[in-house]
Specification:
The chain is mainly alpha-helical and 431 residues long. The protein has 21 helices and 2 strands. 51% of the residues are buried.
């Protein structure tokens, strides 16, 4: 005899980027009736959420340690942030190969291959540190970025695992795993830093162990049948798509959000280390920043519904502006912490806003080329910003690094303001 669980309204709602997750929806994923549905693989959602938390931990570890290690072993201080930048470059470079491999061999095989990249990266990074090899360490961070390209595909596996009415909620549940990754990577970095004679080598051995755990979780992933992704209708040339005000605004918001976030975030561990803050203090700042990037997703969708997309995107720009004020205003630890928290929140508002806006600029038949153009632009700009932050910090100083982001924030805010009429028309609900 089974136990029947009845869920009555009202139900607790979580608004997550741009979809809504309800607590009862999560419970429904495990309800007896849902488990009996032969065409829906609800177990995948939880496995993917766990894998998301572990899989992104390598990225958060490199965010914390990449600049610090780079400053110690790079041939010139200007290259200190190159290891962290290569994780972004690896993600961009491997995005297309990851998609092709999974189309040929399946999601499960592709995801486990990505985990193997992290295992190799951890071992290679530990060896690189023992040899004080900057080149090998950069190769290791590139492999971490390669795995991130596969992790980015987890949300598509979630889509393929559920019926249409659960797609948005399933994706949101998986993405919430990113909150945990903000703790796992930095915690592994600082708790294992002295386990081996070479400093931080133990941290990267721990990262390899985490990759084994992730692969073990993904081993139980059920095969996902590719759903019909065909879309009727004619396709416009890419030039016609990218010339639209809505498309340009979405790409600009995403690119500015990612670029400013990476530019300041990548330099922060290097600067705090040079200012003689401990690794624990630096890790706390980075952890708080990463959590601030993902945690607002629990209510960003509600804010968009309540106040409108334009206001939320503008608030994101303003949060990034206040980040700069805090970062240069004082040399107290609490100011650095507050600046990085606001940096994460501002990124979230801009990124979620851009995510909501982008689909308004293309038809279903055009989605692949439009999304590819959007992602390539954002990752390319983010990579340049991340790499240049080390050079600016080395050749100028912390204040100039932060202040140099203000013109780009002004351009983003002006674009949102001047295109408000077009954006408001595009955001009118379909009748």
């Amino acid at each position: 005899m089974g136990v029947a669980l009845t869920l009555e309204k009202p139900c607790v709602n979580w608004a997550i980027a741009p979809t809504e997750v309800r607590v009862c929806d999560i419970l429904h994923l495990f309800s007896h009736s849902a488990a009996k549905a032969s065409t829906v693989k609800y177990r995948n959602i939880i496995l993917l959420a766990i894998a998301q938390a572990i899989g992104n931990s390598g990225l958060s570890m490199i965010t914390l340690l990449g600049g610090i290690i780079g400053a110690a072993i790079a041939p010139t201080p200007a290259l200190a942030t190159l290891p962290a930048s290569l994780t972004i470059g690896g993600m961009a470079f491997f995005t297309l190969p990851a998609s092709v491999l999974m189309r040929r061999f399946g999601r499960k095989a592709g995801f486990m291959l990505g985990s193997s990249f992290v295992m190799a990266a951890g071992l290679l990074a530990a060896y690189a540190l023992s040899q004080q090899s900057f080149v090998l360490f950069c190769a290791a961070t590139l492999l971490v970025g390669a795995n991130t390209a596969f992790v980015q595909q987890y949300r598509f596996a979630a889509i393929e695992s559920v019926n249409k009415q659960w797609v948005g909620r399933a994706v949101s549940i998986v993405l919430v795993g990113g909150i945990a990754s903000g703790f796992i990577g930095p915690e592994m970095a600082r708790r294992a830093q002295d386990l081996l004679p070479v400093k931080y080598a133990g941290s990267f051995i721990g990262l390899s162990v985490l990759s084994v755990v992730a692969a073990s979780v993904l081993f139980w992933l059920q095969s996902t049948a590719q759903r019909d992704t065909s879309a009727a209708g004619s396709e416009r040339p890419l030039r016609a798509i990218v010339s639209q005000p809505m498309f340009r605004a979405a790409v600009l918001a995403g690119a500015v959000g990612y670029a400013v976030m990476s530019f300041i975030m990548t330099a922060t561990p290097v600067y705090l280390h040079s200012a003689h803050y401990s690794l624990d203090e630096t890790a706390t700042v980075i952890q708080s920043h990463i959590v601030a990037m993902f945690l607002p997703s629990l209510f960003t969708g509600f804010l968009i519904d309540r106040f409108g997309l334009l206001r939320v995107m503008s608030a994101g720009v303003l949060c990034l502006g206040v980040t700069v004020v805090l970062a240069v205003g004082d040399r107290q630890y609490i100011h650095y912490w507050g600046a990085l928290v606001l940096l994460g929140i501002g990124w979230n508002f801009l990124f979620v806003g851009a995510t909501v806006l982008l689909p308004r600029s293309y038809s279903p038949a055009e989605r692949f080329k439009a999304q590819a153009a959007n992602d390539f632009t954002i990752f390319a700009v983010q990579g340049v910003a991340s790499f240049s932050s080390g050079t600016v910090l080395a050749l100028a100083d912390w204040n100039i690094l932060n202040l140099s982001t203000l013109p780009f924030l002004a351009i983003a805010l002006w674009t949102i303001f001047t295109l408000r009429h077009d954006l408001k028309l595009a955001l009118q609900p379909a009748r």
